[in-house]
Amino acid sequence: MTDAWQPPGGDQASLRAFLHGLAGVDEVGARGRAAALATRSIKASSKIWAIDTSIAMVDLTTLEGMDTPGKVRALCAKALRPDPTDPTAPSVAAVCVYPDLVAVAREAVGPDLHVAAVATAFPSGRSSLQIKLQDTADAVAAGADEIDMVIDRGAFLCGDYAKVYEEIVAVKAACGDAHLKVILETGELATLDNVRRASWLAMLAGADFIKTSTGKVTPAATPPVTLVMLEAVRDFERVSGRRIGVKAAGGIRTSKEAIAYLVLVSETVGEAWLTPDLFRFGASSLLNDLLLQRQRMITGHYSGPDYVTID
């Protein structure tokens, strides 16, 4: 930690000066480095570790208007024991649901898993602060120990950094002991410079995690975006002493992609972040491919299409 470092104040002028004083992102370089790291291969002996680590980092998610208590209970059963035929397969990190289904999820998983709720008028974030705070408080009261909030992208893109900062601070306070993941919705931020600024803004305001996407906007998680966010948490730790997690959400569907993200994490922030406490995948279908690849590594053959449940 740098003893001399002082975070900027939460007023508009201070935040703007700080965020626009950050070094610009070399977009070509960032995209090139992410692409190069994606080509890295790992030894076969390490692949089962990588698959199990990826499983343990999944926030198993259902965020559809047609979600039902029965669907959430089935999701929770899969989260607790992803492979019913193999008790050595790890559980996932969390289940992620809408706030009105948090109580169902908490009852189903008990104390064994985290329950994350997407709050604050997810996915648009277009509601009053009062509603966002009530949404958060209701989810925590129902048993959520993680809150995934969305920032006001309109305010951010207009340069109203103080409004975004103040909302994150207020939601963090409403979380109580629950961890706060701040969703940047990077697909709407247009540039990697904006991704870096939004990452720092969220961390300055008290985020425990910064998250790429809601999964409702394309593009969602991408390696270059995740690289910039990882660089931000690395640099933030150097000056503040606080370690912030990163969640890559949306569009990650295969074991090969997940392992490439683990390489990206290891090479950018180091092995300390290779834990569900500091890196997550927001996904549903990813878990199926991880399980199929895991069984192939153990048994030497792929399972049939009915081996995993369809989420």
Trace the largest sheet across and list its strands: 1-2-3-4-5-6-7-8
- Identify low-pLDDT runs: none
The tally of beta strands, per DSSP, is 8
Shape: globular
Write out the CATH superfamily name.
Aldolase class I
Largest sheet: 8 strands, parallel, barrel
CATH third-level topology = TIM Barrel
Whole-angstrom Rg: 19 Å
Structural class: alpha/beta
Average pLDDT over all residues? 94
Question: What's a concise summary of this model?
Answer:
The protein is an alpha/beta fold and 311 residues long. It is built from twelve helices and eight strands.
Describe this structure in words.
The chain is α/β, with parallel strands linked by helices. It has helices spanning 12-19, 27-38, 44-56, 69-80, 102-109, 129-142, 153-157, 161-175, 192-204, 223-240, 255-268, 285-299; strands at 58-61, 94-97, 114-118, 146-150, 179-183, 209-211, 245-249, 279-283. An eight-stranded parallel barrel has the order 1-2-3-4-5-6-7-8, surrounded by eight helices. Helix 3 crosses helix 11, helix 3 runs antiparallel to helix 12 (285-299) and helix 10 runs parallel beside helix 11 (255-268). It is globular and about 60 Å long. The mean pLDDT is 94.
